[in-house]
Specification:
The complex is a heterodimer of chains A (322) and B (362). Chain A is built from 15 helices and no strands. Chain A has helices at residues 2-8, 20-59, 78-85, 87-118, 126-134, 141-151, 158-165, 180-189, 193-204, 208-216, 221-232, 234-249, 253-259, 272-281, 286-314. In chain A, α4 (87-118) packs across α8 (180-189). The two termini of chain A are 41 Å apart. By secondary structure, chain B is of the alpha+beta class. Chain B has 15 helices and 8 strands. In chain B, a hairpin with a 5-residue loop joins β3 and β4 (95-102). In chain B, α12 packs antiparallel against α15 (326-360). Chain B starts with a helix and ends with a helix. The chains are: A mainly alpha (322), B alpha+beta (362). At the A-B interface, α1, α2, α4, α5 and α6 of A face α2, α5, α6, α7 and α11 of B.
Chain lengths: 322, 362
């Protein structure tokens, strides 16, 4: 705010062409003014990120509890011991990993496939297709889950009715331990819009001369995709993998809306984030919740780090289209 | 090479395959478009299910043999009774739409709704072999009931206030920060950018417990403040997008304004912002959708105040209470998504452009 007031006086006054000295002082003043502009974020970073993260770590060494009527005690590594011995941690982590095995490939392949289709020069009304494929992404997740809950319901849902038409007995999607993960992935497909648009932009920015050169050499459509498009969009694949990974680690809303976090069927939707929610916001065991959250953070950093490390071997940054 | 082939009229090339190239190209175009159409159809099928189910009755949804569209038997009111309509094959070969007065195994008595004065018509045959007439009969009342039961107007008001104030905060602060990062030589500018982007991939649960505890202690629980105040501190995604946009505007503009005596703030407001209306609109839309969608934080911060909850939280509560009424759940979902969808259809160009901008440079 101060920056605004300081500068008000200068508005409208004609200035002579700046001398060198004046220019230097202007640059300094500009640097300082810039800092004022960035200030909301800097303050916000300490307020909403840095301080809570440190506090979170500190909580994990205490018995902090919002509802208990006693002073918070430092209890050393008790929470962390509990964490490593907690069978529920292992179970929920396994559920999350299992889901990731389905969701992570889908989160890359589906938007990439759609993007490939939508950049095809043979496709008519590309803009309309693009908008309509994106559209479900702006539907509130809760509504999307309820709609899928209906359309995939065993008796009355259209999915099983259509499968029935071709003679397949559709499964009980949300009550079958095998089919629940594909079902969750299907619900997630309505959210591929963002990734799809980014893939489209990346594919469009591939230099067309490369395709033409390969075509002259007699490359097939598949070879063009595999040897030209794919390597050039690996940075985007990488980016989407990271975003999807973080999304899976935070995966909460869909299972929670689907069955109120009961974990049905048989604990198959008992995700790590749901466990965190139960501990922190239903039992109000804040110290242990902070421990769970920090462990999640460490895993996220490790997984992202691993991805970045692996990126050295498969992400191509050397060429940029245009 | 492509240039000549793209114009079919000038291309006379006939490959060994037989058909001229432009014809093959055209049929390929239909093939690809048709394929995309089928995928789109499947992709949006759940949406059609929702629309159709939201105007059915519970029985129509639960009937395993039920039709796709909501249908009910057609009736004709005659002397105070509702008579079912049938399509009756007459002895002379014609088919007439008649209302049944008196069913019978060997013969039934009908009356012609178009000509009541002609009196009853006797028809020989088993009435169970003839088809009942059905009409399209959407139960529009589902929307009214769903809206009333979930208190939709109140949810809408809450969502609009939270999303509206939040959007103002997010856009205002993000513009300032993005301007600062894009146009000034700030100490540690690069570090700030890196940390900023790192916050995008930070799992949000890490900061949640202390933040919740603080809001609890200062009495902000059960108010909108925890949802609104943080938006005034800029968020990484918006800042990144706006910064990308600032970088596309030539520096000469700033310098000219500077020489004319405009300060940094004046330069931003009168010179740069008018150049980037599209980006600002995109950021507004992003935040609007974020707020409309946001579920976890409104749920924990407003858990005991049903009267302050936004739509996604209200919809989920509605689902837990009325999950044995699938038609109301689908109608409620429709209410929750219709406004975002309409806004999107009008603003999709700006919206998708904004995503382009945020994605390409990464």
């Amino acid at each position: 705010m101060t920056a605004i007031e300081v500068d008000k006086g200068a508005v409208g006054e004609p200035t002579a062409p700046p001398s060198r000295k004046l220019r230097d002082s202007l640059a300094r003043r500009r640097g300082r003014a810039g800092l004022w502009f960035v200030m909301p974020w800097i303050v916000g970073f300490f307020l909403w990120y840095a301080a809570p993260m440190v506090a979170s770590l500190w909580f994990s060494f205490t018995d902090f509890n919002l509802v208990a009527d006693r002073d918070t005690q430092f209890i050393g590594l008790d929470n962390w011991q509990r964490f490593f011995a907690d069978p529920e941690v292992r179970r929920t982590a396994m559920v999350t990993v299992k889901f990731a095995a389905y969701a992570l490939p889908a989160a890359v392949i589906v938007p990439m496939g759609l993007a490939y289709l939508l950049v095809s020069r043979a496709l008519k009304a590309r803009g309309t297709f693009r908008a309509l494929f994106f559209m479900p992404s702006i539907i509130p997740f809760v509504a999307a889950v309820l709609v899928f809950g209906g359309v995939m319901s065993r008796q009355t849902g259209w999915v099983n009715k259509i499968l029935g038409l071709v003679g397949i007995q559709g499964p009980e999607w949300f009550l079958d331990r095998t089919w629940i993960y594909p079902a969750l992935v299907f619900i997630g497909l309505w959210g591929v819009g963002n990734a799809m648009i980014i893939f489209i932009a990346a594919m469009n920015s591939v230099d067309r001369n490369l395709y033409d050169a390969c075509k002259i050499d007699g490359a097939s459509e598949f070879q063009l995709f595999w040897h030209v498009t794919l390597p050039l969009i690996t940075p985007i694949i990488f980016y989407n993998l990271i975003i999807a990974l973080i999304g899976i680690l935070n995966y909460f809303l869909v299972p929670f809306v689907l069955n109120s976090g009961s974990g049905a069927p048989g604990g198959a939707t008992n995700f790590y984030a749901l466990y965190f929610f139960r501990v922190g916001f239903q039992f109000f065991d804040m110290a242990y919740a902070a421990t769970l959250a920090w462990a999640l953070f460490v895993v996220a950093v490790a997984a992202t780090g691993l991805l970045f490390w692996s990126g050295k071997y498969w992400v191509h940054y050397e060429y940029r289209g245009n | 090479m492509t240039a000549t082939l793209e114009r079919p009229t000038t291309s006379v090339a006939t490959p060994p395959g037989g058909k001229p190239l432009y014809k093959r190209r055209r049929s390929k175009s239909w093939l690809v478009t048709g394929f995309a159409g089928i995928i789109l159809f499947v992709f949006l099928l759940p949406l059609a299910f929702m629309v159709v189910s939201s105007v059915k009755t519970k029985d129509q949804i639960n009937d395993p043999q039920g039709a796709i569209l909501p249908r009910s038997p057609s009736t004709f009111e005659y002397e105070g009774r509702d008579l079912d309509l049938f399509s009756v094959p007459m002895p002379d070969g014609s088919i007439r739409e008649l209302a049944m007065l008196q069913p019978g195994r060997q013969s039934s008595v009908f009356i012609d709704p178009a000509n009541v004065g002609a009196g009853p018509v006797e028809w020989d045959g088993n009435w169970r072999t003839i088809d009942r007439l059905e009409t399209l009969d959407p139960t529009w009342a589902n929307f009214g009931r769903a809206s009333e039961l979930m208190n939709f107007p109140l949810l809408l008001r809450n969502t609009v206030v939270i999303a509206g104030v939040g959007t103002v905060g997010a856009v205002f602060s993000s513009i300032l920060v993005a301007y600062g990062l894009a146009r000034f030589k700030i100490p540690f500018g690069r570090t700030i950018m890196v940390v900023l982007i790192a916050t995008i991939i930070l799992p949000r649960f890490v900061t949640l417990v202390p933040t919740y505890a603080i809001f609890f202690r200062i009495g902000w629980l059960d108010t909108w403040l925890p949802l609104i105040v943080p938006t005034f501190f800029a968020n990484a995604f918006n800042v990144f997008l706006l910064r990308q946009y600032f970088l596309t505007i030539p520096h000469e503009l700033d310098e000219a304004a500077y020489i004319d005596g405009a300060g940094p703030f004046r330069t931003l407001v009168s010179v740069l912002l008018p150049q980037m209306k599209a980006a600002v609109v995109a950021v507004c839309l992003f935040h609007f959708y974020f707020a409309w969608n946001d579920f976890f934080e409104p749920m924990i911060y407003l858990s005991t105040r049903r009267d302050l909850q936004p739509i996604s939280v209200g919809l989920r509560t509605f689902n837990t209470q009325y999950d044995s009424f699938p038609e109301l759940i689908q109608a409620g979902s429709m209410l929750a998504l219709i406004i975002p969808v309409i806004v999107f259809l009008f603003a999709q160009r700006v919206f998708l452009k904004g995503i382009d901008l945020s994605g390409v440079q990464k």
